Amino acid sequence: MVTIRPELASYVPIANMIAENFGDQGEVVIHDFADVSASLVYIKGNVTNRKVGAPMTDRMFQDWRKYGNEIEDNYGFTTRTKDGLWLKASLSYIRNSKGHVIGCLGINLDITALISTSKFLNTLVSSSDDQAPVEQEFYGKDIQEMFHALLEEAKQTIGIPITSMKRDDKIAFVKHLDRKGAFLIQGSAEQIADYLGVTKQTIYNYLDEIRK
C-alpha cells in the first residue's frame, strides 16, 4: 500500500466528497510529484482505468516540464482519452509551506454520453459543426506504457522511420520529447538513446544544442 505524505493526505476527504457527488461518471485523483513516474497516490472512482502507481498523463508531463513551480490551476477543460472517452477535467496544484508544487488534485468527469446527446441535438438545429478540436490526452497505467506512447507520438510527429532518420531528424525527435517532459522520467535518456540507436552522451549533446 502506498503511504500518502501528510501534506497530500489532507486532501483525501475532499477527493472522496467530490467523487461521491459525481457517482460512477466521476473520478478524483491525487498525484505526488516526488516521483512523476508513479505519481498517482490516491484515486476514487474509475473513469480512466488507472490504479495507484500510475504516472502523470502526457499532458501533465508537458505542462510540468514547461512551467515547473509557475504552473497554474486549470479548471473545466475538455480532453479525450485514447479509447475515445470525453472528459471534463480540472487540476488544482498543491504547494508546500515554501510555495513549491508537491502534487495536485485532479477531477475527471466522463461526459461522453452528454457529448453524444449534444451532437445529436446540434444536428437538429445546425448544418455545421463549429465545435473546437479537443486535444487527446494519454492516461497511462504505468510509466513504461506512458513512455512508449511518448516515443510513438514523437515518431509520428517527425514522420520518418527511425532507421532513416538523419542527425537533424533525431534532434527534432529529442526536442519533441523534451517539450513533452519525457526527460523528467528516470532513465529516459538511456532508453531514448537505445531507441534511436545512438549513445546516451549523444542524447545529452542534442539536449545541450536544443536548450542553449
Radius of gyration: 19 Å
Q: Any idea how many domains? A: 2
Treating each run of at least 4 consecutive H or I residues as one helix, how many helices?
Answer: 8
**Class of the largest domain in CATH?**
Alpha Beta
CATH topology of the largest domain: Beta-Lactamase
Mean pLDDT across residues: 93
**DSSP strand (E) fraction?**
15-25%
- Tell me the total number of β-strands: 5
Biggest sheet, in brief?
A: 5 strands, antiparallel
The H-and-E topology, N to C, reads as: HHEEHEEEHHHHH
Low-pLDDT runs of 5+ residues are none
Order of the strands making up the biggest sheet: 2-1-5-4-3
Helical/strand content category: alpha+beta
Q: Please bin the fraction of helical residues.
A: 40-55%
CATH architecture tag of the largest domain: 2-Layer Sandwich
Cα distance, first to last residue? 42 Å
Q: What does the overall shape look like? A: globular
Features:
single chain, about 210 residues, alpha+beta, Beta-Lactamase, 2 domains, about 40% helix, about 20% strand, globular
Give an overview of the whole structure:
It is a single chain. By secondary structure, the protein is an alpha+beta fold. It folds into two domains: 6-125, Beta-Lactamase; 143-211. It has eight helices and five strands; from the N terminus they run ααββαβββααααα. The protein has helices spanning 6-9, 12-22, 58-67, 112-125, 143-158, 167-179, 188-196, 200-211; strands at residues 26-32, 40-44, 74-80, 86-95, 101-110. The protein has a five-stranded antiparallel β-sheet. Strand 4 and strand 5 form a beta hairpin. Helix 5 packs across helix 6 (167-179), helix 6 (167-179) packs across helix 8 and helix 7 (188-196) packs across helix 8. The longest helix is centred in the C-terminal third of the chain and has 16 residues, at 143-158. The protein is globular and about 50 Å long. It starts with 5 loop residues before the first helix and ends with a helix. The model has no long low-confidence stretch (mean pLDDT 93).
